[in-house]
Design a protein that fits this description.
By secondary structure, this protein is mainly β. The chain has no helices and 14 strands. It has a two-stranded antiparallel ribbon with strand order 1-2. It has a two-stranded antiparallel ribbon with strand order 3-4.
Length: 135
């Protein structure tokens, strides 16, 4: 606050936060997680694998397994910003990315990913599994 402040409106919040007009408490902006009331924690960007839709002193929510924020964004405010990698699709029921039909592997493991089945195998479902050899 400024010297001789007579109102909470005179107080300044830390970076990446805003004062709540009702509670007069500093809160982290949407797209930023942490606790603006604790100088040791503060507010930081959600990063490339998480989002936070609202203002508040809470942590960011992780994207589903295998997904990250579209276009490398770091200030995401919606789960709609979470997208799967190449050759993968979001399975909303399972809450994870899975390899598209025609691609084998594991979309939730960045070291494995989803690779084309090739000429001697196939995969007709969206799932994190290997391609099946042709009969």
């Amino acid at each position: 606050c400024i010297t001789n402040a007579t109102s909470p409106d005179s107080c300044a919040c830390p970076v990446r936060s805003i004062i709540n007009a009702e509670s007069h408490i500093c809160e982290c902006l949407a797209g930023h997680g942490g606790d603006a009331t604790n100088a040791n924690i503060g507010c930081s960007v959600c990063g490339t694998t998480a989002f936070k839709p609202n203002v508040g002193n809470t942590q960011c929510t992780s994207c589903p397994a295998g997904s990250s924020i579209a276009d490398g964004g770091i200030y995401a405010t919606s789960s709609d910003s979470c997208v799967c990698g190449a050759n993968a699709e979001m399975n909303t029921e399972a809450g994870r990315c899975e390899c598209s039909a025609g691609y084998g592997g594991d979309a939730t493991n960045s070291f494995v990913g989803c690779s084309p089945c090739g000429s001697s195998s196939f995969k007709d479902t969206v799932a994190n599994m290997a391609c099946t050899p042709c009969p």
